Amino acid sequence: MENHSMLLSLNMSPFNANSGDSLAGTQASSPMPPQYGSPPISHYNSCQQSLAMQHHQQTTMMMNQNMNDLDTSHTFSSGANSISVVDMSASYQISGPATSLTTGDLPDTKDGIEEVCPVCGDKVSGYHYGLLTCESCKGFFKRTVQNKKVYTCVADRGCHIDKTQRKRCAFCRFQKCLEVGMKLEGKFSLIQIRVAHVRLHPRHTTHLRNCAD
DNA sequence: GTAGCCTTGAGT
DNA sequence: ACTCAAGGCTAC
């Protein structure tokens, strides 16, 4: 950690959710684009996919502004709803699809045959912290955030995370949790994300209105 | 510390 | 009343 640190705030409640947005949704409007893991296709209509991608791009822009330096540890602020991550590595590419878990690695989910955790590939147990994950990654993310865990990677922060190796490197596992989009507010974030598009991209309001119809 | 199960509370 | 997700509990 010789490099100077830049705090990257992942504020869990960055947007005003009191805009009365009629699009305030439930799990049927996951913010994650389909290339992350394997959200059920039925959960995305074209408008929702568009929204998801917009959020993805927006997040990318926000994250890129803050990730310029290298570090190997995550730290947490004492705020109830905020996590400060001491800048993640340059190879930490929020802007890209979820690391090594490509869609080609995933089983077909067209008929709801099986859905896998985008973090470790285990069977999902439901929506947790914003997206479909397994029970263990849900618990891992919960423990990490609630206990303000600080992990380090003994390797080069590129550890492969799967069902059998997910215990080996907590740093890389948590990093992957963040990469795939896990966040504290869960279903409530979906409202905030949509509100964010309206606030930050007024020209999309027409599109949102069309989606709502 | 991990992960599965259970309880609780909010939303519909 | 039902569903779902967050958090608690606990065996390992």
TrEMBL record:
GO terms for cellular component: RNA polymerase II transcription regulator complex
Where, per UniProt, does this protein localize?
A: Nucleus
Is Zinc-finger given among the entry's keywords?
Answer: yes
Q: Which UniProt keywords apply?
A: DNA-binding, Metal-binding, Nucleus, Receptor, Transcription, Transcription regulation, Zinc, Zinc-finger
Which SMART domains would you find in this protein's record? Answer: ZnF_C4
One Gene Ontology BP term is: tissue development
Q: Where is the Nuclear receptor domain?
A: 114-189
Q: Which Gene3D superfamilies match?
A: Erythroid Transcription Factor GATA-1, subunit A
Q: Name one GO molecular function term.
A: nuclear receptor activity
Cross-referenced PANTHER family: NUCLEAR HORMONE RECEPTOR FTZ-F1, NUCLEAR RECEPTOR SUBFAMILY 5 GROUP A
What this protein is called in its record is Zf-C4 domain containing protein
